[in-house]
Amino acid sequence: MRGYDILGNIALVKFQRGESAKSKRQQAEQLIKNNKRITTVLEKKDKIKGRLRTPKTSHIAGLKTKEVLYRENNSLFRFNIDTCYFSPRLANERKEIASMVKKGESVLILFGGVGPFAITIAKTGKPKRIISMELGRECCKYALENVKRNKVEVEIIQGDVRKKLPSLQGKFDRIVMARPNLQDSFLDVVFPKINKSGTVHYYGFYKEESLGVLRELIESKAKEAGKRIRILKIKRAGDIGVREYRYRADFKVLN
Ligand SMILES: C[S@@+](CC[C@H](N)C(=O)[O-])C[C@H]1O[C@@H](n2cnc3c(N)ncnc32)[C@H](O)[C@@H]1O
Question: Which of 120, 142, 225, 235 could form a disulfide with 79 if both were Cys (CB 3.0 to 4.6 A apart)?
Answer without folding.
Answer: 142
